[in-house]
Amino acid sequence: MSEYTMTYADPPDISYPEPTAPADANPKDAAARSKPNQACAPATAAYWWGYVHEQGAFKYAAFNWRRAPVKASVYVEAARRHLELLAAGEVNDPDSGAPHAAHVMASMAILIDAYYHNTLVDDLGARPAPLHKVFNEIADVRARAGLPAQDPLARRQDRGEDDA
User: Is the pTM of this model over 0.70?
Assistant: First the structure.
């Protein structure tokens, strides 16, 4: 058996002319910088999110929330269910096979899109206490008590204790 070695020819020397205008001379460049940039969003999540919407389109029709009013509570509760299952350790939804996190994304996307298409019915009822104020107060109390900002369950699991 002989050893085969593949060789490549040197690429041709192609030179491109220097641009005559500054790099940002195109007016579209400046306009594009003022727009949201999806390059910072992970494509992996976006594809799973799209898959969940695709499954929803088969079940309920694509963009159905744009054709008729939708209750915010339906999507908030759906997101909560998926978050609870994810928090309980179930990564993928057994019905769709998609990550629970993608279902949460889909529910939240529908809320946002329905809002902008004027089909969102805010039926969430009474609003809770101003949670940002509560979060800040807890952080202050934690700091005064010298408690680290860490997951207390992680310490319990390190000691081999079961959840209560």
Answer: no
